[in-house]
Amino acid sequence: MAWSQRVLQLLHRMNSFHAQGSIKCLCKPFYVGGQRVGSVPPGVLPHLGRYPGVFLVDEGLSRVELSSGLGGYSERSEALDVVLREWKEEKLFDCLEGWRDEKYEVMGRSCDPPLMNMERAATSLFGVKRYGVHLNGFVRRSDGQMSMWIGRRALSKPTYPGMLDNMAAGGLAAGLGIKEALVKECAEEACVPERLAARAQPAGTVSYCYEDGTGIFAECQFVYDLEVPTDFTPTVGDGEVQEFYLWPLQQVRDAIVDSDFKPNCALVVLDFMIRHGFIQPDTERYYHQFVEGLHTTL
Amino acid sequence: MAWSQRVLQLLHRMNSFHAQGSIKCLCKPFYVGGQRVGSVPPGVLPHLGRYPGVFLVDEGLSRVELSSGLGGYSERSEALDVVLREWKEEKLFDCLEGWRDEKYEVMGRSCDPPLMNMERAATSLFGVKRYGVHLNGFVRRSDGQMSMWIGRRALSKPTYPGMLDNMAAGGLAAGLGIKEALVKECAEEACVPERLAARAQPAGTVSYCYEDGTGIFAECQFVYDLEVPTDFTPTVGDGEVQEFYLWPLQQVRDAIVDSDFKPNCALVVLDFMIRHGFIQPDTERYYHQFVEGLHTTL
């Protein structure tokens, strides 16, 4: 199958929650503090009744609400944490096997201060939006040709072991700034000195929403570009990455459709290639569908 | 109201077709050659019955189809053209007062060769996607600060007279390449020599969908960036623009929320500012909502 078609397929897979036949119409909207923050998948709904002090499910089962008896940020976060740890003990959901002890903020649409936090591994059980930050590290030769630094994930990573990744990337844990998180990941994963990482420029977001057997992954990745000097080489830091490659853009382009790439990282480099004119609308028939698929409204 | 909130409002207005209370749920899907190409608004539906040889409306009024008796591209285009000219004579729809004698291609989702063409002024009556091309012309000072060339539309323009515009922009008429259309608009509107215009780099699309009283505007603008030399000044060409300004980005940013800007051009410069890091996610709380609102799936 042609490259373009395979990219479209990847974008469809990464937005499977909005496809026909998904669990979307069986999910119930999830509210915290009066604000819609996610969707509860059908496999989670039957377990909420055990916690009447935490979840409020209306009679028509039209929506799930975190009990308004839970006052604020801390009280909500702690009450849900107790439930999630119980589910983890009971081995109720596979995703909780990947418990990280890393808290993600739960935000409403108004982008006011976060409403609560939630263990990272549990966010898919409530369809809560997750945020991350990804870096396109690239080199520009004197003739204008670009190459990108691509990492290969360690075999010990719990998710997507051994697959291709961006030069640096990570989830946005509670309380950390976006650029701050990026600089931290750059140092930890690729030994990029802070002075160099600080030069990274924000260039938008990539957003998508997919489902797997039990959960919903509504993710928004903040994207940064960093032009690195030709004499700089990222090196393995905390061991999350096993190796770095400097690849010409054409090679990265081909790899996007290989099953070798961690899917969301493939989207981040696709977005890079569109923004930098390496993919052109006169020669790529699905150009505008690529752009739309990379920026799903969450 | 704060700048960020006003930008959100602009994005909501430009995507009003997908907002609650829009005519969306009263529209019927429009098919040509078995492919979905648009939506017919409720105000247009009652007039289709007069043309049984052109439109096929099923009994349940669940969809409108261009008659399969119309063989190919030319036959379809001509049959619809006869209908539209009749409606124009009858002064049935205001939008047809702006008849341009300019044909737009009607495309299916597969991006195969176009299925037919349609008078530009009539596309909103069938919710058919329209494509255009916009240029961000900018200057980079030696200290890295950027300014943008902004045009002011002539008072004689039928749409948005006297409002701010990008350095060059235009609709994509049938049969023209995208870069080709851009170079042509650059020459006509701003007297940009072909050699300079050819340096413009594609950088994505901006897409949105709004409704007015009778029609649906589903539009995708191909976006190009062109860094122009500091000693170049665009000059008025065919009279569609009355004047050009070179504004620091901060001034352009403020103007985005003025009612002075042609709305879709304001979106194009907003996208530019995000891609070039002038708007940053750590300081703009609605950053990812901006990116999502600029790239609606059509």
UniProtKB/TrEMBL annotation, chains A, B:
InterPro entries: DUF4743, NUDIX_hydrolase-like_dom_sf, NUDIX_hydrolase_dom. Keywords: Hydrolase. Pfam families: DUF4743, NUDIX. GO terms for molecular function: 8-oxo-dGDP phosphatase activity. The keyword Hydrolase applies. Residues 130-271 form the Nudix hydrolase domain. It comes from the Eukaryota. Gene3D superfamilies: Nucleoside Triphosphate Pyrophosphohydrolase. PANTHER family: THIAMIN PYROPHOSPHOKINASE, THIAMIN PYROPHOSPHOKINASE 1. This is Nudix hydrolase 20, chloroplastic-like protein. It comes from Callorhinchus milii (Ghost shark). The lineage of its organism: Eukaryota, Metazoa, Chordata, Craniata, Vertebrata.
